[in-house]
Give the backbone structure.
Amino acid sequence: MSDPGPTVFNGRYELHRRLGRGGMAEVYLARDQLLDRPVAVKVLFPEYATDPAFVERFRREATAAANLNHPNIVGVYDWGEADGTYFIVMEYVDGRSLSEILRAEGPLHPDRVADIGADVAAALGFAHRSGVVHRDVKPGNVLLTQAGQVKVADFGIARAITASTDDNLTQAGTVMGTATYFSPEQARGEPVDPRSDIYSLGCVLYELVLGRPPFAGDSPVAIAYKHVHESPVPPRHLDASLPEAIEAIILKCLAKNPVNRYPSAEDLRADLRRFREGHRILAEPVMPTPADLGDTTAVPVAAGTVPDYLDEEEEPRRSSRLFLTALIALLILLAGMLFLLARALGVGDNGNPAVAQVEVPNVIDKPIDEAQTILEARNLKVSIVQEANDDKAEGIVFDQNPERGQKVDEGTTVALKVSSGSKAVPVPDVVGSQIEQARLLLSAQGFTNLREEPTVDEEAPVDEVVDQDPGPQDEVPKDTEIVLYVSTGPADRAVPDVVGRPIAEASNLLGQAGFLVSQKSEPSGTVDEGRVIRTDPPADTVQPKGATITVVVSTGPAMVDVPSVEGLSEANAINTLRAKGFNPVSVEQDTTDPAKNGRVISQAPGPNASAPTGSDVTIVIGRLVTVSTTA
């Protein structure tokens, strides 16, 4: 069978070789035949091409990216549909990604990092002004040409900031991007704005100066948790030779609260340029806020930097502490004097015995029944208040007043707070998400008790969540088991028997059964032209939906050159014709030539003509007759 040649999209883009593969598409090196230049063509996986909502989003994103004309952004030239899928035509960048450079060279010099970061920030700033957030800034999406020019690639998963809020393509809670470079708001499934890209670029800068990202873990879920709840180790704690200014810039980008990051990518670029030019930067240590840090999280401060607030507030705080200490000492002295005065006057005696005191035992983490028994055994009364608690199981004591070890009078009431279980909160909607994204979103919201149930589904692609229990927005405690029904794709099915059927009918039956059809032809002496000889895989073989079935179609009997048998004996001619697959038919013809007696005088079809295998070849055999003569 002849070589079909390279694939050409829209009669223009000739695909040569695959450059890479992503989560939803493959990228090929191609040639634009019209302009005679190399291009990169991103081809969407076929399973996404059947989802109208996804295709519409793909079209919008391609259109948005095509409007981003900037020297530091990989250009998008064209997009279209071909061979049942969709593609984007992009500028081909002959160079390496930052991820490849990091693997080959390790950490980069801070000056080089600042130059690269400034160019990336310039690209992001232009995109943000055009209403597009990248959402997936990472070393693999930053390319350096042979001449050292920075190019930011793959705005393919970006979403227009200006998209209508009632757009039915908008999915609240959808997690997009790469976990290692997530912003905290991305990890929580919250709406993002340009400051999310600034956080992701901060992760990239951190990795470029140290050779490792700010957060690592055994799974994307673990990494996303750290983005939300943990502060990065300051870069100079890992490499003291780094300039203080570059550390301050990176830490400002990595602020948990978007308010504390650079207001725009242009502001970040300006600070990186100040660093390169030796000027004072604007980045300063970020004060801890509830949105940024937990109660016990330390604020990273660049080495040698004294926060301004210490100079302004330390003296008033010191004075307040001295005043408070003196006041407490005075009250203690007064209480002692009153006690001695009461003893001297006999107040409180009246001949009655003093009330016995007991030490309050610790009942925290005990079941309420056991706690009540322990306290009542020491002649203490109990009051119970039930409250929701995410950390303690239902019926367990999580607080007490008075605390353990205090001496109190017998009969004193000890107030206990008892867990009524986790607080009920809405379950995020993860139906339609890939399972990895669903895990990230649920875990970021505190739901970690997850169970997956494989589910056959005729429409949903493999690993997509098709249902969940409890359902979206159902309010349940965070420790509730969330069951995710995950598509394993459509069920396998048997290949229909289409042997002997016309090719059109056979293709229709195979398509109705859920298979794709490819066709090839070959001759057959037993199957009529245009009918199916066999299929590959054969009939009744079990195959997954969407598998390609090759249909072999008859072109009729093979055409064979008829050998020349003229002049041969009858027996020899018959053997020769049968050896070539023909059916010899002998007829006799009188001849007066002794040399032609018993030999082939002529044949039909004639020598070297083509005829179907198995067809008749008539040979004329000479038979000598005697001619009488009269005197």
In short: The chain has six domains: 8-91, 95-276, 361-419, 424-487, 493-554, 561-624. Residues 561-624 form a domain with the Trypsin Inhibitor V; Chain A fold (CATH 3.30.10.20).
